[in-house]
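Field notebook, page 700. I keep forgetting to write these up properly, so this time I am using the form the group agreed on. The chain and the ligand, magnesium ion, are recorded exactly as supplied. Prediction of the bound pose follows.
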Amino acid sequence: MKVYDATSIRNVGIVGHGGCGKTSLVAAMLFDMGAVNRIGSVDDGSTVTDFDPDEIERKISLQTSLAYGEWKKNKINILDAPGYANFTGEARAALRAADAALVVVDAVSGVEVQTEKAWGYAREYGLPRIVLVNRMDRDRASFARTLESIERAFGRSVVPIALPIGEEKDFSGVVDLIAEKAITSAADASGKAQTAEIPAALKDASAAAREKLVEIVAEGNESLMEEFFEKGTLPQETLAKGLKDGVAAGRIVPVLPVSGMRNVGVSFLLDMVLDLIPSPAERGEVVGLDPSTKKETRRAPKAEAPLSAFVFKTVVDPHAGLITLFRVYSGTLKSDSTIHNITRDTTERVGALQLMQGKAPTTVQEVQAGDIGAVAKLKETKTSDTLGDKQSPIVYPAIAFPAPATTFAIEPKTRGDDDKISTALRRLSEEDPVLKVSVDPQTHELLLSGMGQLHVEVVVGRLRKRFKVEVNLKKPKIPYRETVKGAAEGHGRHKKQTGGHGQFGDCKIRMKALPRGEDFKFVDDIFGGSIPKNFIPAVEKGIQDARTRGFLAGYPMVDFQVELFDGQYHDVDSSEMSFKIAGSLAFKDAVAKCRPTILEPIMKVDITVPEEYAGAVMGDLSGRRGQPQGMEPTGTMQTIKAQVPLSEMLSYDAELTSMTGGRGSYAMEMSHYAELPSHLQEKVIAASKAERGEEKEEEA
Ligand SMILES: Nc1nc2c(ncn2[C@@H]2O[C@H](COP(=O)(O)OP(=O)(O)OP(=O)(O)O)[C@@H](O)[C@H]2O)c(=O)[nH]1
Ligand SMILES: [Mg+2]
């Protein structure tokens, strides 16, 4: 395998809305580059980059995968990211390792929710972009209409660099506006594209489109502007150079039509990847932090520089174990070497280095600055770690993964499988940093949180297939809490006279509500020794124990204060146990007079939907006791902000999908606790009684 240096590599991330044809397009790119000998198809499960059994079964991408090929002596590394909202974390990881984003838009649907998300990520990472209007061969495909939708969403920076020759089933080639020629797909099976004269019917439209392109390119550059005014146009070389600079600066985003499945426009796309996207060398120095001084430091993308590499993904392979995918930013990573994990300050042994063509590895001796590679069996390295040279350390910023929005309680179908599940989930969350596994401290349920129902279901499938454990998913129990609204005194007296030693403890407390979030405060206000000092902690302990068991429905009681102000004791019969019991009796006595109530968790929710659904989503939220907090336009979408009780959001993912035809997404995080409306309190109390009754039966 040839080693490529930083001047002859392009790293592109392919992103866009779910199902817009990214993986099929990658299949065609690989075919045109000669990396595979037939075009893989998503529908029959034969693509290079959708290789996971779940991907093949569901016919969608679930994780970012790598592929590469050689085009005109350069290596093109492709990161094929999933498009579905449930896997946006993967798209972020893909773009983190890329030098440019190919943003794919469907020629029928135009810009969609995840197109805008992907665009936003690419901007955030400062990546040059090319927009591909894909699936041009479909019925009702329209380049002009799709372009309008792209301009509406992304503004005037987008400009076509090619026009389609024919549309729908007649889509047969593209007009290259830079070189002013036609590139048509081959009629034979070779797949080799042919160049030709621009068809007469497209001459005028092409001339007009080229003029627009020339104007936009000249706009950003004074000397080009002068040349443009002088000659009325720009020659091909000048135009190409100006365009490349504009793309690198993010000032211009070229648009071109393509069909991955029919392999039309793909060789032109590969040319444009080479011509317009900066190589790692051209992207220049990369910025990170010196781990000891925390100061900004830089690395040149040169093979001779000290090593630095960033881990953008880890994959669990059934045979090879954990595989680490990395991008080398500087220096050269060599097979069979020892390197440093700078993030964790540990040493790692590197075995055989590999290049990944989907799931198929090719062993290489080294991976140079600018290139992307893989290595199996690193011990401690995780996603977002920086690997490098201990003597000249640098750390690159971690990938900011989105917070999971949907939580399920998970339990084994077979009793006793709990440990197996925990171990398996830990492994799976190493591979998928968006996944969160936790145990609710209050309800003790094992919780699995993901971006949405689909994400969690995929994880459940992996538990079954890879780890042979079957689980049930349930709606998680709501961690309700209890509190009091008033102030009152309470008295607790524990007295028993059975045979020899008696038991005696007596205490009086004042209880009052505290502001939300203050939890619990205990004040010792005993004067004159009515309870001896050594028994006072026992009273507090008794109250602490009682409050965790709650009063109304068994939920922990919070946000109140207890002052212990009086009591009685007996020289012989008093004990810690007696005062603990007295404390809990006083607690119950006081709570009953203090207007106890139930609190529920309220979530902060951001829902992003196309404008036309905003009204319906708002209406639906009010049915969920939601309180709108405002609306913000984001591109052609609206982001609705609201506070909604957690109990109303348990199956929101599925409901939002059906409400918006899969065009909405949402994020959710804990906001605060608020009082549960009284008509719902009765239900919660009844449910908890029923459940505790069942538990007692089970115990008996
Ligand atoms: N007509 C037509 N169909 C296509 C084309 N490209 C892909 N498809 C079909 O569109 C569907 C989705 O294609 P994929 O390549 O999986 O799309 P994707 O963008 O990778 O999907 P995700 O990764 O799951 O977001 C499949 O049924 C493909 O056969 C195309 O150029 N023309
Ligand atoms: Mg895909």
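OBSERVATIONS:
- The chain has a mean pLDDT of 93.
- Residues 22-23, 50, 61, 80, 82 surround magnesium ion (ligand 2) (CB under 6 Å).
FOLLOW-UP: compare against the apo run.
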